[in-house]
Design a protein that fits this description.
By secondary structure, this protein is of the alpha/beta class. It folds into three domains: about 1-210, Dihydropteroate synthase-like (TIM Barrel), CATH 3.20.20; about 270-340; about 345-440, Sulfite Reductase Hemoprotein, domain 1, CATH 3.30.413.10. About 45% of the residues lie in helices and about 20% in strands. The protein is built from 15 helices and 20 strands. The chain has helices spanning about 30-45, 55-70, 85-95, 110-130, 145-150, 155-170, 185-200, 215-230, 250-260, 265-275, 290-305, 325-340, 360-370, 390, 425-440, and strands at about 1-5, 5-10, 10-15, 20-25, 50-55, 80, 100, 130-135, 175-180, 205, 210, 240, 280-285, 315-320, 320, 345-350, 380-385, 400-405, 405-410, 415-420. The strands form five sheets. An eight-stranded parallel β-sheet has the order 9-8-7-6-5-4-12-11. A five-stranded mixed β-sheet has the order 16-17-18-19-20, covered by helices on one side. It is globular, with a radius of gyration of 21 Å. It binds iron/sulfur cluster. The site of iron/sulfur cluster has 13 residues, from helix 14. Iron/sulfur cluster binds near residues 351, 352, 384, 389 and 392.
């Protein structure tokens, strides 16, 4: 069995036991000063790789300047260009960035064009020592794959295998694969299927893990930690992003905690033994609340997700103080929902935002959460842009999608019901649509 390592600038990915932490800027890449400053902050906070949205050639030029400014300050953190819908942009970005992320679902419209232009991309990458992430997303699988395999974990695995084969046909092995989904079961199944297939084929490419559109706060951290820990506990995964609808700076400590947790796996093994022996009672003593929810999720989450455990009780001390039963219950509800074992509130799907986002995503998301908190059983999405948002909110019943400055589209499933709604009215209109559908017995299209 051959385990490949991939060099992304000065960072090596795929060395067993080392999990690289990465994040993404949420500044417009063309705002060079803001992006540069955020890269410096993220790098200082411990980000080992930083991605920037690169939607056009203007952004490629800006990326070049940002990289030069960082290098001039001695900051060597590798930069990744995030490219959708344009192989031409991917080709140019590959001459500048340390890695280019492409999405097989939107790299090119026709498959033969995708094959030809991906070969061209790998040639450019060979010449410039650039790596490629083949970034498959559950929400944006190409039509050809969906028609053949369905919008399923095996469809995601097949999409990745097709592009791995395309890279191999061009003698290019500097690839990293991701199969992200917002649903933790879909996400973990997809990665597990791909890992098994790579094992069967005898060549293991590094995997970039992430639960996409995980949201924010405790829910976002817990959902990410469930998906990541279920895979990292089996030794699957080489680099991670904890994707939060918050400042990207907040992603680093959470990702760092998870990456380090599985280095000292003794405790995970001890907890697994306890569960095998029927003990349900877990104790925690941590310095911070976030450490508590992340540690407990990394230990208990995989067992809930994989149904080796149905219920549990917790005693926790945080900063020396006993955690109240109410807070423990709230944590339990979040963990049960993240592991998709018991749903006690709406399921929220929210992208982290990036340079394409033209509104205050975090505050809008918090307001949507507050006003829809009673809608248990619904999947509600808040997405930062109209270009990728509708495609990425795969499981949403209803969606609030930023359209441009001050304008929003309101979706029922994949259908825009109201377009160009002023931002000030958008949450009211979203709620009115949900209520009138409930009144008229129009079922949410993908409820559950
Ligand atoms: S959906 Fe969100 S994260 Fe994705 S490109 Fe749009 S704004 Fe950026």
């Amino acid at each position: 069995m051959k385990k490949l390592i991939v060099n992304v600038g000065n960072v090596t990915i795929g060395q067993g036991g080392i999990v690289v932490v990465q994040t993404m800027c949420n500044t417009p890449t063309t705002d060079i000063e803001a992006s540069f400053r955020q890269c410096v902050e993220l790098s200082n906070a411990g980000a080992q790789i930083i991605r920037l949205t690169t939607q056009g050639l203007k952004e490629v030029s800006a990326l070049k300047v940002i990289k030069e400014k960082l290098r001039a300050q001695g900051i060597l953190t590798p930069l990744v260009a995030d490219v959708h819908f344009s192989y031409e942009v991917a080709h140019e970005a590959a001459k500048i960035a340390d890695k280019v992320r492409i999405n097989p679902g939107n790299f090119a419209k026709e498959h033969d064009v995708a094959v030809r232009e991906f070969a061209r991309l790998t040639d450019i990458c060979k010449e410039h020592s650039t790596a490629v992430r083949i970034g498959v997303n559950h929400g944006s699988l190409g039509n050809r794959i969906v028609e053949k395999y369905g919008n399923t974990p095996s469809g995601m695995k097949e999409a990745a295998m097709e592009w791995i084969k395309m890279a191999e046909d061009n003698n290019f092995d500097q690839i990293i694969i991701s199969l992200k989904a917002s649903n933790t079961i879909v996400m973990t199944e997809a990665y597990s299927l791909l890992y098994d297939e790579m094992l069967k084929n005898g060549v293991i490419y590094p995997l970039h893990l992430g639960v996409t559109e995980a949201g924010n706060g405790d829910e976002g951290r817990i959902k990410s930690a469930v998906g990541l820990s279920a895979l990292l506990s089996k030794g699957i995964g080489d680099t991670i992003r904890v994707s939060l609808t918050e400042s990207p700076l907040n992603e680093i400590p959470a990702a760092d905690f998870i990456a380090k947790f599985f280095k000292k796996s003794d405790r995970y093994i001890a907890v697994s033994e306890k569960i095998k022996n029927g003990d349900l009672n877990f104790q925690y003593n941590t310095a911070t609340w976030d450490d508590f929810i992340l540690e407990a999720t990394c230990e208990i989450g995989p067992h809930l997700l994989e149904k080796r455990l149905d219920d549990f009780s917790i005693d926790a001390l945080v900063a020396g103080q006993a955690v109240s039963a109410k807070l423990v219950d709230n944590f339990k509800d979040n963990l049960m929902q993240a592991a998709r074992r018991r749903f006690s509130k709406p399921e929220f799907i929210a992208c982290p935002g990036c340079g394409r986002t033209l509104f205050n995503l975090e505050s809008v998301f918090n307001e949507v959460k507050r006003r829809t908190a009673h809608l248990k059983g619904y999947n509600i999405a808040v997405m930062g842009c109209i270009v990728n948002g509708p495609g990425e909110m795969a499981d949403a019943d209803y969606g609030y999608v930023g359209e441009g400055r001050g304008k929003v589209s309101i979706y029922r499933g994949k259908t825009p019901v109201f377009r160009s709604v002023p931002e000030s009215d958008a949450i009211d209109i979203l709620l009115e649509l949900i209520e009138s559908d409930a009144h008229n017995r129009v079922s949410p299209p993908q409820n559950g």
